[in-house]
Structure formats: structure tokens, C-alpha cells
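Notebook, bench 3.
Goal today: get a predicted structure for Molybdopterin molybdenumtransferase from Neomicrococcus lactis so we can plan the truncation constructs. The sequence was checked against the plasmid map this morning, with no discrepancies at the termini. Length recorded as 404 residues. Pasting the sequence as submitted so the record is complete.
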Amino acid sequence: MSQDITWDDARFAAYALGVRLRDSIASVEKIPLMHALGRTLAQDVTALQGIPHYASSAMDGWAVSGTGPWRIKPRSPEDEPHAASDTLGEHEARPILTGGALPLGCTAVVRSEDATEYDGELSAPEPRLRADIRPAEREARAGDTLLAAGTVLTPPRLAIAASSGRDDVEVLSAPRVGFILSGREVVTSGLPLPGYVRDSFADFLPPVLSAWGAFQASPFCQRIGDSLEETLSALSATDASVVVSTGGTGHSDHDFLRLAVERLGAEFIVEAIAMRPGHPTFLAVLPDQRVMVGLPGNPLAAFMAALTVVQPLLAGALGQPLDEPRAVKTVESYAPLPGRVRLVPSGLSLADDSELGAPEVRVISKEHTGPAMLRGLGDADGVMVVPPEGTQPGDPVRLLDLPW
Ligand SMILES: Nc1nc2c(c(=O)[nH]1)N[C@H]1C(S)=C(S)[C@@H](COP(=O)(O)OP(=O)(O)OC[C@H]3O[C@@H](n4cnc5c(N)ncnc54)[C@H](O)[C@@H]3O)O[C@H]1N2
Ligand code: MOO
């Protein structure tokens, strides 16, 4: 019989396995910024030059030199509007755009709305010295570390790397993930007859795994019926370092995933998890260090299992921290379920009766949350972790974020 481990231990075991996997596939790749979202920097990103690298105007208006009124130096039509092509003498002014390089001799910028132009002369209230001038190197000096190795690239961090003049970044290699979708009864188009089901995973799990940072293996997605031979041949056909299967995790004479993994001499890290849904989920390491994740066939159970073990596994493999679920309060009553965590698709609402005077996030379970149902998840804002002892309204609970 399978040995259950607790939900929290399963997350930690998956994360630790990811860290081990990172060491076994350890390598670094240089990739364009546009593909680097969510990846972990393998090297510091330093400023190649100052940021900003030149002094510029913070406003549309006039670059002026000394005190007013100023004689207007017209721009020639060939001038690049942002370039600094000229020098201002004392009491001279010329038009300037936001971000435009300051002409030599410029002592302040006068905003267009504050200035009056008349007969080649500009007058305005006297600006203070260096008014509306953005000095060079205000954000960073050349050589400063902008992003340290180990940082996970978020959208603003990609923009920081771009502003340093880089087109590529060195990141830790992402694990290649491949799917084996099992089940002779699964059809991929049209209305299924009784005894058959329409596939729920091909449109669902690949984007979820990409959002968690996985890289597609080749072949990416293999469909198999229910036999040991097909399972073994799919396992040998993939170049994935993480193989994720769906269905066939049970112990019936139609379930072959565990058998195939045992046949290959794998070490089981997790045999089953004390959770609902998703109990039969397993995690194993093959002798060649490939990781095998067995997700159950029931669609909601498969996603909850992926949230529990695949996300931490990938976070570990990508050099990222293990996310702590958010602390929120529930409005729901759940009876105890000794030993088992329940994962419940939930909505969020703001309660304004908080004693702290600040609005408080409350979670409310959704309907249609059976292991084979997806409608509740479709409406959810997060996944509530109901502890084995159950809950009363107002109790603190943990909430897992969704990857979309
Ligand atoms: N005697 C027992 N039976 C079951 C147990 C148990 O402890 N004792 N556990 C139940 C639980 S919990 C789950 S979850 C499932 C796990 O089943 P498997 O992982 O072996 O998956 P299958 O039997 O292959 O399929 C289950 C269910 O899911 C449907 N399925 C499979 N693939 C897809 C797909 N791509 N898209 C949509 N639906 C899919 C499949 O048709 C079945 O209906 O076992 C329970 N039984
Ligand atoms: O994993 Mo199963 O019912 O708990 O769907």
C-alpha cells in the first residue's frame, strides 16, 4: 500500500527535489530579454554606463542659460529634437523636449507653460539653478550592480536590464518538461460518447507549466493508452528532465504509471499525498536523475497535485524561493478530515468590518469543486488550504495563488 505524506511535506520534498535537479542539469544559457520573464539570473547585471547616461530635460520647454529674459536660438529643421548639438551663451534659450540632451551652458529648464515668447525673446519667472534638469547617473553609475545573480526576472527587472543597454541575459537553464497523457478513453475533439471523456489537459497544463518557468521538451506531449509497453516507450522517447504524466496513478490492473517507473528502477520520493483531491499523486527519480511526476486523471485533482508538487519542483529547479501561501481568513465552516488537507478553489472578497480598520481579505469556497470538475476553478481567485482540523468562519487559512 502507498505511504501518504502530509501536504506540507510533499511541497518541501518537491522543492528539495527541484534543487537537486538544478544541480544535476546545472548550466547557464544566454537568452534574449524578451524570453527571460520568470527566469533566474546566473550573473549580476551591471550598468554598462551611467543611468541615465546624459543630463537631460525633465520637461518640454526651454533650455536657458543664466538669468532671463533670454534671446531665443532657433533650432534648425535638421536638428535631432533630442540631441545636444549646440552651446548656449549667457541669456540665451532654445526649445527642448522631455528627455532631450542639455546644450552646453544650460543652467535650467523653463517649462513651456511658464514662458512667454515675444519677438525672438523669452521671458518667465526666474528659474532656480538646475530646475527641471535630470542629472546623469542619478539612478546608477557605470559598473553598479543593478540586479544580483539569483534574482528572478519580473517585468520591471527586464526593463532595468534593457535600460542598462543589454539585449541578452545569462540565466539558469530551465528544466525541460514533457507530458505523457494516458487513457484510452480520452478523446481530443468533438462530443465524447458514454465511457469516453474529452481531454481537459492539453489546453490547460502546458500554459500553466510555462507560467511556472518550464521549458518544452521534445516530444512535448505524448498520448498513450493503458499499457505497460506504451508507458515505457513514452518514457524512453522523451528528452525531458521532468516528465509529467496524467492518469494511471491508481493501483488497478489498468494503471501502469507506477509499474513502469518501478520497472525502470526509480526511487519514489512521494508515493501519495494526504490531500483531497489529488491523493494518488506520486513523485519519483529515475536512475538517470530524470524526475517523474504522476498526476491523477481527474482534472481538478491533477491541477491541485500540480500546484502542490510541480510548482515547488520547478521553483527549486529554477533557483527560486518556495512561495509561502498567503495568510487570509475564511468565511467557511469545514468539518475535520483527520490527516488530510483539502484544497478548495475559492473566491476573494474584501470585508470592511476588520478590527484593524483596514479591509481584510476573506476567502469563500466555490461550487462545482469535485475532483473531476473544473467550473469552480474557472471562477476562482485562489486555492484555499483547509487544514485537517477543519475551519470555522473567521479562522485564518492559507491561500495559494493561481498562475493566471
Ligand atoms: N479503488 C480506488 N479507486 C480510486 C481511488 C482509490 O483510492 N481507490 N482513488 C481515486 C482517486 S482519488 C483518483 S484522483 C483517481 C485517480 O485515477 P488515475 O490517476 O488512475 O486516473 P485514471 O483512472 O486514468 O482516470 C481517472 C479519471 O480521470 C479521467 N481522465 C483521465 N485523463 C483525462 C484527461 N486527459 N482529460 C479528462 N479526464 C481525464 C478518466 O477518464 C477518469 O474518469 O482514482 C480514483 N479511484
Ligand atoms: O485525487 Mo482524487 O478524487 O482525490 O480526485
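The helical segments are 7-24, 155-163, 205-211, 228-237, 257-263, 299-317, 375-378. Residues 299-317 form the longest helix (19 residues).
Flagging this for group meeting.
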